Amino acid sequence: MAEVERCIFPAGFDGDLPAETGRVYLGAEFCCWLLPPVRQLVFEITSVHHLGRRVSVVLPVLNESFLPRLPALLPALSEFLHEGDEIVISDWGALALVRSFCPGVEVVAGRILSGQKRGPQVLPLDESSGAAGYLRRSRWHSEAMVEILRDLGICRVELDNPVQGVDPLPSGLRGTLHTPYAFVTSSRNCPWRTSGSTAACRGPCGEVFRLDAAPLDAPLLQRGNTQFMKNRGLPADPFSLGVDRVVFHPSLPR
């Protein structure tokens, strides 16, 4: 019987991997200024390959002033990516560049593009209500989007693991589930970044802090420009949802 592929997305790869890890995610999802420089990414990719694991390089949401970096970054990475490796996009603006500079590398649609309904406000929801089904669906559950993804040659899509759960994906899509931190919201503004700067940020970006408010039934956790909610639970049968991969984040994503 097939097993779910277990992956890890560390804040910084130190060469130490749990034995069950089949794939390592490298890069940044939410802040383009935290994407490691080319030399570091190449070192991490080759280190992961040396350990016999596959790589998924994650590209972040893009800022206009960051875009000129990609035509230099992508060809350098392409040289070191092997069969079975991937590039995960978190911004549709990266797709054409990835296709152009990394031909043959599988492209994955990242979780920030899924359009899921996230946040602790859904915790009190009556599971028997009609809204519950709506809140378990994403953009990937739309027939029109499935056709678009097929035309773009994208078969794998990524999802958060919100508290209300996820409906089964349409046939033809392979799903990846991120845990335990579900993305809630993000902003171009960061409390630790100088406004207008185009320089890379020094990590880590300030301390993680917790946001509690009376209407919320669970706290929000913030790192840098992005807020998350923690949900340790996983579906009992991921394959029934079209999910064949789980990505574990040891710390709040960046």
Which range does the strand content fall in? 15-25%
Number of helices: 5
Measured between the Cα atoms of the first and last residue, the distance is 34 Å
Largest sheet: 8 strands, parallel
Order of helices and strands: EEHEHEHEHHEEEEEEE
Which regions contain 5 or more consecutive residues with pLDDT less than 50? Answer: none
Task: Give the total of beta strands.
Answer: 12
Q: Which sequence of strands runs across the widest sheet?
A: 5-4-3-2-1-12-7-6
Instruction: Please identify, by name, the CATH architecture.
Output: Alpha-Beta Barrel
The mean pLDDT is 89
Class in CATH? Alpha Beta
Overall radius of gyration = 18 Å
CATH topology descriptor: TIM Barrel
The 3D shape can be described as globular
What are the salient characteristics of this protein?
254 residues, 12 strands, 22% strand, single chain, eight-stranded parallel beta sheet, alpha/beta, TIM Barrel, four-stranded antiparallel beta sheet
What does this structure look like?
With about 250 residues, the chain is of the alpha/beta class. The chain has a single domain, classed as TIM Barrel (Alpha-Beta Barrel). About 20% of the residues lie in helices and about 20% in strands. The protein contains five helices and twelve strands. It has an eight-stranded parallel β-sheet with strand order 5-4-3-2-1-12-7-6, with helices on one face. The protein is globular. The mean pLDDT is about 90.
